[in-house]
Design goal:
This protein has three helices and eight strands; from the N terminus they run E-H-E-E-E-E-H-E-E-E-H. It is of the alpha/beta class.
Length: about 140
């Protein structure tokens, strides 16, 4: 499941950005009790995008920020408790990585739900049911 992390450049080093992605991926897998799942773990993919300082905005003003966005199937994060736990954990990951230099008010976490049947993994279009089956079979 794609994890995209967009941050104002200079907030973290490349190495810290790599660790952020790793930790966010762990949080996603742990939120669904599928850490180490042979099907799901290699399909948690992503990128960290550094946006030039002066080109990130909050409240219409130039501000440093971090946005963590997931693209996930609609069966992901079924409860509000799962959502809240994930948002809190990812926010903490970003705060720790930036050593508190980024305001908590400038960290956003969200998820975009993908259309059922449009999960293209290794050339196959999976439905939500097929994804669930693949995850369960790999448990």
């Amino acid at each position: 499941m794609p994890v995209q992390i967009m941050m104002t450049e200079g907030l973290v080093t490349k190495e810290k950005a790599q660790q952020i992605h790793h930790d966010v991926a762990d949080a996603l897998l742990e939120a669904h009790d599928i850490s180490g799942n042979a099907f799901m773990t290699p399909n948690v993919i992503g990128e960290v995008i550094f946006v030039e300082k002066g080109l990130t905005f909050a409240g219409k003003d130039v501000q440093d920020l971090a946005i963590v966005e997931l693209r996930v199937p609609s069966f992901t994060f079924q409860t509000q408790d799962q959502k809240a736990m994930f948002v809190e954990r990812v926010t903490s990951i970003i705060l720790n990585a930036t050593n508190g230099t980024l305001s908590i008010n400038n960290i956003w976490v969200n998820a975009v739900y993908a259309v059922d049947g449009f999960w293209g993994i290794a050339g196959q279009a999976y439905t939500n049911e097929q994804l669930g089956d693949a995850i369960n079979q790999a448990a």
